[in-house]
Amino acid sequence: MTSAVDLYPELDTPQALIDLDVVDRNVSAMRALGRERSVDVRVHFKSLKCGGLAKYLMSAGFGTFLCAKLNEAEVLVDAGIKDVLVANQVVGPLKARRLAALATRATMSVCVDDAGNVDELAVAAAEVGATIGVLVEVDVGQHRCGVDPGEPAVALARHVLKHTPALRFLGLQGYAGHIQMLPDLAERTAQCRAGLQLLVETRRALEAAGIPVAVVTGAGTGTANSAAGFSGLTEIQPGSFVLMDAAYHAACPTYGCALSILTTVVSRRDERYVLDAGSKAISKDFGTPVIRGCPADRVIAVNEEHTIVAPGAGVVRVGDRREVLPAHCCATMNLHRSCVTVRGGKVEVVWPIESSGRYD
Hints:
Layout: E1 15-19, H1 20-37, E2 40-41, E3 43-44, H2 51-59, E4 64-67, H3 70-78, E5 83-89, H4 93-103, E6 107-112, H5 115-128, E7 132-137, H6 151-161, E8 167-174, H7 185-208, E9 215-218, H8 224-227, E10 235-236, H9 246-251, E11 259-269, E12 272-275, E13 290-291, E14 298-302, E15 307-310, E16 321-325, H10 329-333, E17 338-343, E18 346-352
Parallel strand pairs: 1-17, 2-10, 3-4, 4-5, 5-6, 6-7, 7-8, 8-9, 9-10
Antiparallel strand pairs: 1-11, 11-12, 11-16, 12-15, 13-16, 14-15, 17-18
Helix pairs in contact: 3-4, 4-5
């Protein structure tokens, strides 16, 4: 990128940008993968957090979404999405009632790994005459949420079936988030398929017990290619592929970086220049960001309000603008209340990021 003061001059900085041309290419690649491998693609909203972006993806052919939090589910349903999975445990009567209320407006499903939680979800659904779909979450190696594969999952599925029609048993989820960015593709693929094998064997155990399984879902952006087409898996659930980031792109170069933070150079010395965005605008939990189009420039520090860069080739002046590619798109979207969409170097529209800064 050439040093310039006229990069989106109508925008103040720092500003989150989403390049829709890049989004379109990423979407096309993921849709092609699903189509070629005959697997459904459910888009994860935890990376996106923006109702306008969900609507845009729906118009591009994605009709099903999943999310991590109830507030994200509410944004999705408000945006017109009709099929939403909360890929997490929704625990406690307050949250159970919120989920049940959404189930009166859209097809809602949720993950469970505890019988008591199943009971409270059933009570909430029955109170409003709704039905909530249920996936038993299976621990396939991350050791976070989920029951053990095999008989523990069968036992919990039987418990869900006791609560028909308030609850509807759908199947299984198994997500291995810890392997999504493993740099060694062969190792990532091997671990992914080992986890999926546990999931599919659990499906067979359910079917042997006379329990039909409609959905077996898992994988993310980093394992989508390894998982798609795996026998017995019906659905993949990538999300970061839409926006991407510098760290994930290194592991999954198929998908380009659509999210950037527009910044301004506010100070210049021979050995450094300083941008007007720091860790309050650019997440650094997955590492340091990079400067788009300036491969020789090296980020040396990210402070609260400043990013310090060692310049490579080219002239840098105070007032110049730089697009910064964050190392973690999910956490960076959570820092901004709005994003500006661009296409072909031109500003299009502003979208609110309704779920940013919310953790409920």
